[in-house]
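sorry to bug you again but im stuck and you know this stuff better than me. below you get a single protein, a line of residues and a line of whole numbers that encode the local backbone shape. mainly i need to know what kind of three dimensional shape the backbone takes. anything you notice is useful, everything is just below:

***
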Amino acid sequence: MRVLLIEDDQRLARLIARVLNEEHIQVDLAHDGETGLDLALRGVYEVAIIDWMLPGRDGPSICRAIRGARLPTALLLLTARSQVEDKVSGFDSGADDYMVKPFAFEELLARVRALSRRFSQPSADPQELRVGSLVLDLRGHTARRGLRVLDLTPTEWNLLEYLLRHVGQTLSRQQILDYVWSYEHDVQPQMVDVYISYLRRKLNAPGERDPIVTVRGFGYRLEAERA
């Protein structure tokens, strides 16, 4: 899962990021509204956690901009405001959930997971991503194809997760780069090709069909296995 956290309290932001990282959730941080919105509009996040009061642009205006861009990102507003009219204003701006500070990190994590399940592709088990014989166990952080366990590096895991979440969609190299490598601006698009090659070696045993399709001049697509 990839989460965007927009929070100007840097100490709180670090604590939230650490809690999410411990659950193998990728977190990108922004500490002001304009930077946060720029990141959000890249369209690579399952969930965005957005503080109400931010420098530059407030949380509700960020929510409205994301909804105006028709992005499927789930939006969770954080605020010290607890009045009913504030909650109504937050939901009217496009937020999907609302938490009042101070809050328990366990509850925040549960809400992030719930939002991710609601906005992800339907699955018989919300704790796994499954396409044919390919399975990512999100809780156990294990991957397998059929009965074979796949020993993936963190980068290979993130790459396969992104492909699984967008099965059947052709993803450009830049889209993959934005999701998997995030802030690492010195990473070149050719790195996508290198890691696709690494991933293919681990996914495909002799005689197995390669589920990753190369779209020349553009990017890659993960296809479901044919019956």
Q: What stands out?
A: Helices lie at 10-22, 33-40, 59-68, 84-92, 105-119, 154-165, 173-181, 190-203. The radius of gyration is 18 Å.
